[in-house]
Amino acid sequence: MSHKIAPSILAANFLELGKEIDMVNASQADYLHVDVMDGAFVPNISFGQNIVKFIASRCEKIVDVHLMINDPDKYVQSFFDAGANIISIHAEATNHLHRSIYGIKELGVKAGVALNPHTPISIIENVLEDLDMVVLMSVNPGFGGQKFIYNTLSKIQKLSELRTIRNLDFEIEIDGGVGLQNAEKILQAGANVLVAGSSVFKSDDPIQSITKLKELGIEQLSEF
Ligand code: DX5
Ligand code: ZN
Fold first, then answer.
1. Over 50: is that where the pLDDT of 224 sits?
2. Which residues are catalytic?
3. Among residues 108, 109, 104, which one has the least CA distance to residue 90?
4. How many other C-beta atoms lie within 10 A of the C-beta of residue 103?
5. Which atom of ligand 1 is nearest to the CA of 178?
6. What is the pLDDT of residues 51-99, one digit of tens each?
7. Exposed/middle/buried for 122, CB within 10 Å: 0-12, 13-18, 19+?
8. 219 Ramachandran zone, left/alpha/beta (phi>0; psi -120 to 50)
């Protein structure tokens, strides 16, 4: 199965939000990645449910909400109401991860768990069966436009091996500093969803940037 591309709206021009979402709608993107930051779990505030509702109402792609907030259980219902199709919470932001995951699944949407760069995969080993997605942060969350942390590649490999050994099908999404310069390596390591903020929205031709990310690896495959 081919990999998926999730442009991150955080890097968009918010004065032109509707147009930016239309660009994503017209592109080969699979998801629209939506970063919610609370200024407590991460050192930055982005936007809340109301903006997510506007974004989701215009978006024709799957709305992939990444909650970088403390106490996520309190808010999952309202992000579901706002139009989220996938909700990911941070393992570091909840005391009862299993309960938090089921709080999302019971709403009828896909549940993801995100891990900060320093958090080991072992923390989610006992809930992997319950997950639709694992988000491996390849930057310290809070800001767009940061440099990819290369240690993430070995984490991707480890998680991808676990997925194969256990015969599971959760998605592995990589978030932070992803662009054409490193996407091939990330995919080879076993990831299948690429979040791309700056490398899409800050490029001269965002639609073309999405196409290039989406078509990576296709030539090699068609040689066989
Ligand atoms: C970082 C966010 C990312 C961010 C990625 O805290 O979770 O989704 O938007 O942006 P780039 O691709 O610019 O690193
Ligand atoms: Zn994100």
1. no
2. 35, 175
3. 104
4. 20
5. 12
6. 999 999 999 999 999 999 999 999 999 999 999 999 999 999 999 999 9
7. exposed
8. alpha
